[in-house]
Amino acid sequence: MDTVVKCDGVSVNYGQDEVIKGITFSLKKSDFVGFVGPNGAGKTTLVKALLRLIPISAGKIYLFGKEQSQFSDWYKIGYLPQKFSSVNILFPASVEEVVSLGLLSLKKNPKIITLKDRKKIEQTLLELGIINLKDRLFFQLSGGQGQRVMLARALVSEPEILIFDEPSAALDPDARKDFFTLVKKLNKEKKITVIIVTHDTGYIGAYANKLLYLDQKLIYFGSISDFCPSEKIGHYFEKSDQHVIWHQHQ
Amino acid sequence: MDITSFLHYSFIQRAFLAGSFVAVTCAVLGMFLVLRKMSLIGDGLSHVSLSAIALGLFFGLYPFYVALPVVVICSILILKISEKAKIYEDAAIGIISAIGIAGGVILVSLSKGFNMDLLSYLFGNILAISNIEVIISVLLSFLVMTVLYFYYWDLFSTTFDEEYARTTGIKIDFINMLLTVLTAITVVLSVKIVGLMMVSALLILPSVTSLQLAKDFKSAIFYAVIISLTSVISGITFSFFLDLPAGATIIMVNAAFFILALFTKSLSRFYQGV
């Protein structure tokens, strides 16, 4: 099977501090992997390094077989950031305009949103059940609606990898379940590789097929079924917690 | 005097033509600056213009030719100082702005005869705009608008969500540099229209007024252009018939639109029970 992401000994420094060190793993097409670990473990840092949002200090990252610095097909990767923290909430952007941004990596300047693009945007909104929001202002939406619009932005370029950073942070339990079910459906039907950063080691196991447990260095990378029995994670969880997580993964 | 004979004056025609082009440019550019919380860059760069214009007058050169390169270089310096000294952009604007004012004051005190000329740049004098200045204003406005059109979606994306824009391959540093340089050019163009003291108002007021009324980004830009154009045209007209300074009148018309927009918004909220 095709390797879509490969990290080879990746380290990231913030100033003098080494935030993640020597991370090595690879993901194949249609993998659904949870990046888990305690607070400050470097989960978001690893995702940002994959997306070239921060520079790596050692190692190499390969995307679709190309070294990251040579990779230019960014439309193949959809990204949904943590709690929209980087979004300018004063910007009067309509939902249609926000979703249009997902198509920019396919275009050269002057970038023009064509009639065909607008149909594609409508189709994506329709698939996610939010076509009724098309003309609404983004900053007037609820947390769950905003999340779906961001998912539409990530999906509109028909990516082969979807990366989510703590996607359920702003969602109530029902909206969280709906969201994860939708992502699982996309993973299964469209063979999209999914990476989800989460602090909830148990919950993600019900949807993912692999887990990557990080605590500055790689502690565990492998299948869900081998996670709880693994000796490597025994240091991080009490026996009773391991038992609860094992049940959640079933 | 009736309105038709007023329109036959060539200096009025020149003022309308140059003013309209600069008004449209300021409205579109100002929208991105306001939404990026960079409104005061216009103020900072206009202070740099003071130094540059004083320098031109001091050496007997046409001030516009000195101001354009000096202000563009200083706009790049603002970005570089912010990046190298790891300080927020507003602090870098403050530094360049203070140096601009200080340099201007020193040059004025060293000179003996150009204080009256400098006054026309401080408060603007669009009714005295020359043919060559009209041509330069129209050409540079056209250039700025063309570049804005070319990078519209990149500017939109970086203004809405810079982190996401980076993941789509947009060169953020280049876009920030581009916006700053375009602002520098527009500030120099606007000096003749409303003067150094009021340049930033021409960039900010149409945008903040339209943001009170707009339903999405496209309509926000459309309203800003209409407000800016109307303010410049009616400001020039009022100033002629009421014998008032043109630059200040343009800004007061802009301010009146802003107050009207705030009032309309409050009234509509009141009737909607929000």
Compose a concise summary of this entry.
With 250 residues, chain A is an alpha/beta fold. Chain A has helices spanning 43-50, 95-100, 115-127, 143-155, 173-190, 201-204, 224-227, 239-249, and strands spanning 3-14, 17-28, 32-36, 58-63, 66-67, 77-80, 161-165, 193-197, 210-215, 217-223.
Q: What does this entry look like structurally?
A:
The complex is a heterodimer of chains A (250) and B (274). Chain A is 31% helix and 26% strand. Chain A is of the alpha/beta class. Chain A has one domain: Rossmann fold (3-Layer(aba) Sandwich), CATH 3.40.50.300. The radius of gyration of chain A is 18 Å and the shape is globular. The relative contact order of chain A is 0.18. The mean pLDDT of chain A is 89. Chain B has a single domain, classed as Orthogonal Bundle (ABC transporter involved in vitamin B12 uptake, BtuC). Chain B is globular, with a radius of gyration of 19 Å. Chain B starts with a helix and ends with a helix. The chains are: A alpha/beta (250), B mainly alpha (274). At the A-B interface, helix 2 of A face helix 8, helix 9 and helix 12 of B.
